[in-house]
Amino acid sequence: MDFLEVVGSRRSIRIFKPWEQVEKEKIQRILEVVRLTTCPGNLQPWRAIVVERDKLSKEDRETLLACDNYQGAHVNAPVWIYWFADVEGSTADTFRTRVHDLVDLGALPTFYGWTHETIDSAIVKGETAPEGMPAIHSLIHGLPREAAEAVARQETVGACAVAVLAAVNEGLGTCLHMAASAEKTPDLHAVLNAPEGWVPVWCQLVGYPAESPDGGGQRPRLPFETLYYDGAYGKPFARNAEVVEKLEEEKLLQEEMPKPGRFEELKHLARMLGFPL
Amino acid sequence: MNDLKSCPSVQKWIENVNRYYNLSDEEWDSRLQTLADFCRSEEKDPDTVIAEALADRGEKVDFIRRLKKFVKTQTSNPRVGHDLENIVRSFFIHNGARVVTRPYRGDA
């Protein structure tokens, strides 16, 4: 599928075929895509644990579902990918190690000021980074653990956005769900044997959609002009109608909800799967 | 059945469901019959069932526990029983009493 069509066809799918398993190769392909996601300092603080619902013991399945308040889509989906932010993956020391590597590989050019010495003096000693480099003395030096956790979370969220597109590209339905409420997080860690420093971010549900893959149409989005500005806030970025038309042809922009027959579809799905109407 | 329809909780249920799914009169007759039978087994009217379920989580859990027993008196077919349970669950849900819902899984 073309990139624009993947983005345009993505929906949060909430009704899966519970009986149809997902090929392990497709899950691997999703994980391979995410591995290459953009990330500052090449930190890669995301981790994932892939759970096949029907391979869990009944007890573990119930515990994990309880962590997510037994949400219907979670109950319904055959694969649950738990995405975690590894706080250790975003510490100042990890950043330092990773950017050293990037300098040695030629990704961070020395002519912008990137050397082992400038990196160490900024991150370890807090000395001002030379112009041409980001202000890592301010951003990374003395980075408190809470800030490292925030970085790990935000980068994992970004990775999850890529993960859902990768799933759509495989012809799968997918949706990001809460992994666990705060009070249930220890239960999640216990069942999945997740290390203590891993913070649950999202549970990505994956399966073949029982609902129409278009999920009843694209979700309504805020007007373009209220989201984007040209030069400075106050002057909306002009939306060119010809570009819009071309994006419709390329299937980025598709018919919005509600499409006719959506509730009829939901009615039949509820009956087929045994959910209350 | 008309008595049942005069209950605010039943009216709310019908209005909420029909807002989206517009079920036929025949289907409603069948659903109302199931609700009436359940309420009779509880010896309570629908409004009282909802009021008690909303007031006390333990009471709500007990209603659902008894609902499972009730459907076994109505049918020996597990899928039919699941669907009968769902009718009463729907009545709870649309009146704000959160109950867990599961797809039908045969052996589960």
Structural key phrases:
heterodimer, A: alpha+beta, NADH Oxidase, four-stranded antiparallel sheet, globular, B: 108 residues
Task: Please explain how this structure is put together.
The complex is a heterodimer of chains A (277) and B (108). Chain A is α+β, with helices and mostly antiparallel strands and 277 residues long. Chain A folds into two domains: 3-89 and 145-218 and 254-273, NADH Oxidase (3-Layer(aba) Sandwich); 92-139, no CATH class. In chain A, 43% of the residues lie in helices and 11% in strands. A four-stranded antiparallel beta sheet of chain A has the order 1-2-4-3. In chain A, helix 1 packs across helix 8, helix 3 (58-67) packs antiparallel against helix 9 and helix 5 runs antiparallel to helix 6 (116-123). The longest helix of chain A is centred in the middle third of the chain and has 25 residues, at 145-169. The mean pLDDT of chain A is 96. Chain B is an all-alpha fold. Chain B starts with a helix and ends in a 15-residue tail after the last helix. The longest helix of chain B is centred in the N-terminal third of the chain and has 18 residues, at 25-42. Chain B is 73% helix and 0% strand. The model of chain B has no long low-confidence stretch (mean pLDDT 93). In chain B, helix 3 crosses helix 6 and helix 4 (46-55) crosses helix 5 (57-74). Chain B is built from six helices and no strands. The A-B interface holds A 18, 70, 72, 75-76, 263, 266-267, 273-277 and B 17, 20-23, 79, 82-83, 86-87, 89-90, 93, 100-105.
Number of strands of chain B: 0
- What fraction, in percent, of the residue positions of chain A are helical? 40-55%
Gap between N and C termini of chain A: 35 Å
CATH topology of the largest domain in chain A: NADH Oxidase
**Rg result of chain B:** 13 Å
Q: How would you sum up the major sheet of chain B? A: none
Put simply, the count of helices of chain A is 12
Estimated share of beta-strand residues of chain A: 5-15%
The quaternary organization reads as heterodimer
* Largest interface summary: A-B, 13 and 19 residues
The rounded distance between the terminal residues' Cα atoms of chain B is 34 Å
According to CATH, the homologous superfamily of the largest domain in chain A is: NADH Oxidase
- Range of helix content of chain B: over 70%
Number of domains of chain A: 2
* Gyration radius over CA of chain A: 22 Å
User: Number of domains in the coordinates of chain B?
Assistant: 1
How would you spell out the order of helices and strands of chain B? Answer: HHHHHH
The poorly predicted ranges of chain A are none
Biggest sheet strand order of chain A reads 1-2-4-3
Largest sheet composition of chain A: 4 strands, antiparallel
CATH class bucket of the largest domain in chain A: Alpha Beta
